[in-house]
Structures are given as C-alpha cells and as structure tokens.
Design goal:
The chain has 11 helices and 12 strands. The protein is an alpha/beta fold and 286 residues long. Helix 1 packs across helix 10 and helix 5 packs across helix 6.
Length: 286
C-alpha cells in the first residue's frame, strides 16, 4: 500500500503549550509550499517511549523534543548522532531504515546564531565564560570546544554542577566559583548566559560587566524577554551582543530539512512573527 498522507511532525513536551516551534515550522511549510503539518504533542512523563514508537507511522516523520523529555528521547533511540551522544540528550527524532534516530540541534543553533549576529566572534577564541550548568550550558560548552576555544570556564551558583559539566567534557573546560566570576571577565572573549537567570519569572542575573574588554561578545540563551537586562547592559557598554531568540530559530532548521526535504531560511519575517508572540506572552505574564 502506498502512503499518500502528507508528512507531519511536531513537538513533544509536558507542558507544551508554550512552545514556539509550531509557529516556526508552519511558517516554513507555507513559505516553501510543502503539503505538511506541524503539531503539539502533550506527552506525560513516563509515556515518552510509547510516543516515540509511533514515529514513522501515519505520516509522522519526526518530532522535536522539549522539557522534560530530552534524556528520555536519548534513551529511546536506536542510533544517535555524535553530537547527541556527546550531550546525552536528544531534541530531534526521525526514523530511518526502521531505526529511531536522534540528534541534538542546539549546538548548531547556538553557533549559527552567533555567526549571523556577530561575525568573527570566535576568531581569537582564547577564553569563553559560560554562566549555568544545565542542559543549555552543556550544548553551548560543546559548541565552544568544537570551535577551538582554548579555555571554557563554567560558572554556576551550585559549584558541584559546574564541576560535573566540566568533568564531562574535560580538555579546555574548567570551572570557577560564582564569587570569582569578576576575576575571569577581563580576559574573556565571550560571555554567555546559559542559565535561566534573567528569564521572565526567574531571578535576575545581576553581574558587573565593567571588567569585560572592549573586544568581548555577550550572548544570552534567554529569549523571554527578547532583550534581557544582560543584553541591555552589554549594549550600554558598546559591546557586541547576541540575543537568545536566534538560537531558537536556527536550531529548528536542521530538523525541518531532515523531515521535509528542503532547507529553510531564518528570515526577518519569521523573526518578527516569533518576536511578536514572545512579546505578547511577556505582556500577559506581567
């Protein structure tokens, strides 16, 4: 029997209503003239493997994975890309030759965002300081090591988590106590907030950027609000900045291309569309 249904994909999470992925992928489907769909899948904890087993059936060509399922998705896979293996987490699933594959596109999204927003950001590549030690930080540290940074310092409020992350990657990855953050900044080429600090509803990220050199780039993985206090403070100093929304947009592109067979582009129109949604969500939360 020939499969005639249009391809469909979606994002699996719990909760999942907040996800901006449907807006991104539906925009690309329309722009590229593809007869497909992208849905939200509310998958309860403990039921992810059952959901993953359905990929490849009834036109479901793949899925994005968001919290809290990225580690469960990793475990459910038959095969994984080298990046997913290194991170221990999967955010993109598809079935190939009967086997469930997993990838993690956060690394590609982070790098593409910085390449677009701040060309040449990694040319010196001596020291990067990363705030946070969760899942986002893991992908960002891997990305920085892959770009050849000589030293990547992880700073986290819970020192043990920072040390565990540094031990996972080894090599140029080290840690510094939270109280010593200011001592690392004068030599930093890049400062990245990979924590939830500064996000709407979370504690602020209160750090003094006066020690950063003029060459430094400041990036924030947080995109709710669109411009965080960290980005505003860096801009006020005249430093190059990279906002978090671009990472979300660019990490979606490799998954879309794999599922639907065409390479999408992050356009100003798409960015404005998602910005409007995020701004509305921020206003509603206040």
């Amino acid at each position: 029997m020939i499969e005639t249904s249009a391809p469909r994909a979606g994002v699996a999470g719990w909760p999942v209503d907040h996800s901006r992925s449907p807006t991104i992928h539906r925009y690309w489907l329309k722009e590229l003239g593809i007869a497909g769909s992208y849905e939200k899948f509310a998958v309860r904890p403990g039921e992810f493997r059952q959901f993953a087993s359905k990929i490849g059936e009834d036109g479901l060509v793949g899925a994005n994975v968001t919290a809290p399922h990225k580690e469960a998705a990793f475990s459910a896979c038959d095969q994984r890309t080298p990046v997913a293996e290194a991170l221990g987490a999967v955010n993109t699933l598809w079935r190939q030759d009967g086997r469930l594959w997993g990838d993690n596109t956060d690394v590609a999204g982070f790098l593409a965002n910085l390449d677009e927003a701040s060309p040449g950001w990694a040319e010196r590549g001596k020291l990067a300081v990363v705030i946070g030690a969760g899942g986002a930080a893991r992908g960002i540290v891997y990305a920085l090591v892959s770009r050849g940074f000589k030293r990547v310092v992880v700073v986290n409020r819970t020192q043990a988590r920072a040390e565990a992350l540094a031990a996972h990657f080894g090599g140029p990855t080290t840690t510094a106590p939270w109280a010593d953050l200011a001592t690392e900044l004068p030599e930093a080429d890049l400062l990245v907030n990979a924590s939830s600090l500064g996000m709407v509803g979370q504690s602020p990220l209160a750090i003094d950027l006066s020690g950063l050199p003029e060459r430094a780039v400041v990036a924030d993985a947080v995109y709710v609000p669109l411009r965080t206090p960290l980005i505003d403070a860096a801009s006020a100093r005249g430093l190059r900045t990279v906002e978090g929304l671009g990472m979300l947009l660019h990490q979606a592109a490799p998954a879309f291309a794999r599922w639907f067979g065409k390479q999408p582009v992050v356009t100003p129109t798409l960015r404005a569309l998602v910005e409007a949604e995020v701004a509305a969500a921020c206003e509603a939360a206040q």
